[in-house]
Amino acid sequence: MDNTIKITLFGRTYGRDRYGQMVSQETSRTIWGRKSPVTRAEWGEAGRQGVNPSFQVKVRTQEYRGEPAAEVGGLRYGIYRTYENGEETELYLEKKVGEHERD
To answer: Of 2.30.29.30, 2.40.10.270, 2.60.120.260, 3.20.20.80, which CATH number belongs to 4-95?
Structure first.
């Protein structure tokens, strides 16, 4: 079974508008990763912290830049935890309450 997926990562950039006011803009970029379920241990620990994990995605460490949100399969998720393991970084995703599919 091929678990390779496209994952769109969302971050923010900050700058000034033409009036000199600080404004933020959402940025996005798409990379490839490998999707897998979270472990029972992760599920339990996340639950104790009030998080409802959905799954994890492993991406190349050099491609992840600290983004706090992602989209997989048209659904938006928060990245609640990361774990860097050499060449790969594990992104742990949770479905955010009130988030809907993007048009």
So the answer is: 2.40.10.270
First and final C-alpha spacing in the chain? 29
- Encoded tokens for 66: 């600290």
Taking only the tens place, the pLDDT of each residue in 19-73 is 999 999 999 999 999 999 998 888 888 888 888 899 999 999 999 999 999 999 9
In sequence order, the 6+-apart residues with CB closer than 8 A to the CB of 13 are 24, 25, 27
- Rg of the chain in Å (alpha carbons): 15
